[in-house]
Design a protein that fits this description.
443 residues; alpha/beta; nine-stranded mixed beta sheet; 41% helix; globular
Length: 443
């Protein structure tokens, strides 16, 4: 049984034959190759595309090793697509495995030092050449320690169309799992949405797969790619970030946490550099902090969220399962998956404390930017008591603006709105309403 990923199929279909290289990006093992070579191909076949109009090359396979030479790859594709009266779909998996080849017909002495890269043919060159062929539509995937997929998009700039693939959303997981909604949510919060983990029926094997994947693929990729001498600091940083998902942080605070975990000193510049490595590998997403009343960003204070909760939990040996943090992380992932730009908010409120006036900062979990509009979202397990409801909505009620305000609650409760205009909704119906926008949902 296939795990359906219809939203990505729609994205691929909308970008087909647009004159650009389609670059499928995202964390490794999230299903990029399967999406392209199985789901999208099946969709095109159903639309009437003939089987002989596909050229598929998986550069990770040993029998395709010769095609890692970009010139050989180009010649092979052009040979397969020689009938210009037909339209071909070219799928190249793990494109970064192509190595650069020196052009021997150029006189090196005539090339300035700063332009020496021009002496080489790379896969960027040959993909751009293929892109210029009107009868060829090019799709590539790629991410590993040699060239993570974010780099591929950067090198193509306006000549490439990115399709960003994430681990399974809750809606995708629920459609496949065949579980009751609350049970599905429990499983999803625990094991996440990496496709092969979802397909594995045995929970012990799920845990082992996720743990091995994190250590032997993601961390090894980073260490190999950046030629790191050891993994002690980045391991400690990863643990610190996973332990504190949804908490405000900065490089200095993280350096102290990492130093404590390792029982040896590390410094802010190292932590800042390693944070960029983890972001580039798509293990974490970062949200900036925005002052709602002051209309400004805080430069160094951010929140880091795990790309997949199953990977996070496996790394921490399935300890530290604070439901409020897991739910907040899940909501953030859903918002960015839907294409929104998401900040975290702070509202400063003047209050009397011990007889003195003080400005106190209160958090808004998410500010969802929708064009010129905004929607404020608070994640809360419950509002079972008046005090709890007051606590969870205090920051929302003190923004002093008319933007929509939503509290997402644990469970399946239907939407309702209180007298101050704040809407309350269960997180499950929110996660499953993927075909309509937030504006439509809370209009």
């Amino acid at each position: 049984m296939d795990i359906l990923r219809d939203d990505y199929i729609r994205q691929l279909d909308s970008k087909s034959w647009n004159g650009k290289v389609k670059v499928i990006t995202g964390i490794r093992r999230c299903g990029k190759s399967y999406l392209l070579s199985h789901l999208y191909k099946h969709y095109l076949l159903q639309k009437g595309v003939k089987a002989d109009c596909f050229v598929e090359i998986d550069l990770e396979k040993d029998y395709n090793a010769a095609y890692r030479n970009p010139k050989v790859l180009y010649n092979h594709v052009m040979q397969q697509c020689k009938n210009k009266r037909k339209r071909y779909y070219v799928f190249i998996d793990e494109i970064q495995l192509c190595y650069k080849v020196k052009n021997t017909d150029i006189d090196e002495s005539l090339v300035p030092e700063e332009d020496r890269e021009l002496l080489y043919t790379t896969f960027y060159d040959i993909l751009n050449s293929l892109r210029g062929e009107e009868h060829i539509d090019v799709y590539v995937t790629g991410s590993n320690s040699k060239m993570l997929s974010k780099d591929i998009v950067t090198n193509f700039r306006d000549r490439g169309s990115e399709i960003r693939v994430y681990p399974l959303s809750f809606a995708e997981y629920y459609a496949f799992a065949g579980l009751e909604k609350m049970e599905a949510l429990e499983q999803y919060l625990n094991f996440g949405g990496m496709p092969l983990a979802v397909l594995e029926p045995d929970e012990t094997e799920k845990q082992k797969y996720l743990s091995d994947l994190h250590h032997n693929v993601y961390m090894k990729d980073i260490i190999d790619r950046y030629k790191m001498q050891d993994d002690v600091v980045i391991d400690a940083l990863t643990d610190a970030l996973y332990s504190a998902v949804g908490s405000l942080s900065n490089p200095h605070k993280l350096a102290n946490s990492v130093s404590s975990l390792m029982a040896q000193k590390t410094y802010d510049p190292t932590i800042k550099k390693y944070l960029s490595y983890l972001e580039d590998a798509y293990l974490f997403s970062v949200a900036q902090r925005f002052d709602v009343k002051g209309k400004r960003y805080f430069e160094n204070i951010k929140k880091y969220y795990a790309m997949d909760l199953g990977l996070r939990n496996a790394r921490l040996n399935f300890r530290q399962q604070e439901r409020s943090h897991l739910m907040e992380n899940m909501i953030y992932n859903e918002l960015i998956r839907r294409g929104y730009r998401v900040d975290i908010g702070v509202v400063e409120v003047e209050r009397i404390v011990d007889g003195k006036r003080q400005l106190i900062q209160y958090e808004i979990d998410f500010i969802v930017n929708t064009g010129n509009d905004k929607i404020y979202i608070q994640s809360a397990l419950n509002i079972d008591t008046p005090d709890k409801r007051e606590q969870e909505t205090f920051s929302l009620r003190h923004t002093r603006d008319s933007f929509r305000k939503i509290v997402l609650l644990d469970g399946i409760s239907r939407a309702w709105t209180d007298n101050s205009g704040i809407t309350y909704l269960g997180v499950i119906p929110f996660l499953l309403d993927t075909d309509i926008s937030l504006k439509e949902l809370f209009a």
